[in-house]
C-alpha cells in the first residue's frame, strides 16, 4: 500500500477554469478549495467528502451531476505519472421487478441501488477514456448488505445473501461480459497473483468486466510505464511484455 496523505496540494485557477489536484487530496478538500475561489464553479464528482481523488478519479468518478456533466474523468485534461503505474442495458419488466423484490425479501438484509444513466453519459464514446460504460446503459446497480451480528457464521450468512442476489440479477443485466464498476470492487469476479505466465490471462478475466475493450489499451500503457509491474494489487492491470515490449 502507498500512503498518499502528503500529496494533497490543490491549486484553483478560476480565470482559466482549471485546477491542479494532487492524488492524496479528498473530494471534500477539492470542493472546499473551489468554493474558496468561486461561488459559481464546481466539479462533477462523488458525494462522500472523505474519499481520495486518486481512487475516485481512476474509477471514473461517479456523482450526482453525471447526467449533465459526465464523470470526473471526462474533465481531466492531463495527469502526471510517477514511475518506479453491473449495468442494466434493457428495461426490466414489471414482473421482473416484482420477482427481484420478492427475492430480496426472502434474502432479508440485501438491497439494490439503481443509478440512472442518460444525458451527458450517452454523448461520450466508450473508448474516450478508460471508463467504458456509456451509451446503451440504463442503470448502474450497487449491491449492498449490512449486518450487526458478530462472528464468522453471520458473515457467511450475509455474504451468501448478497452473492445469491447477484446471481438472481443475471437475466436483467449486461452479458458477455457482465460488466462491473471498478470502484465497487468485487474480488469474486477474479483476482491476480501476478506470478508466472498466467498473470495476463488472470487479469483479463476481471479487466474486461471493468474496462471492456479498453482493457487492452490499459495493458499497453501499463507495460510501457511500469514494465516490472511494481505498482500492483490483486485486481490491477497486468503487463504483457511479449506483446508490447
Can you tell me about this structure?
- The protein has 8 helices and 5 strands.
- With 245 residues, it is of the alpha+beta class.
- It folds into 2 domains: 66 residues, Uridine Diphospho-n-acetylenolpyruvylglucosamine Reductase, domain 3; 163 residues, Vanillyl-alcohol Oxidase, Chain A, domain 3, CATH 3.40.462.
- The strands form 2 sheets. Strands 3-5-4 form a 3-stranded antiparallel sheet.
- The longest helix is centred in the middle third of the chain and has 17 residues.
- It starts with 9 loop residues before the first strand and ends with a helix.
- The relative contact order is 0.11.
- GO terms for molecular function: flavin adenine dinucleotide binding; oxidoreductase activity.
- Pfam families: BBE, FAD_binding_4.
- This is Reticuline oxidase-like protein.
- Keywords: FAD, Flavoprotein, Glycoprotein, Signal.
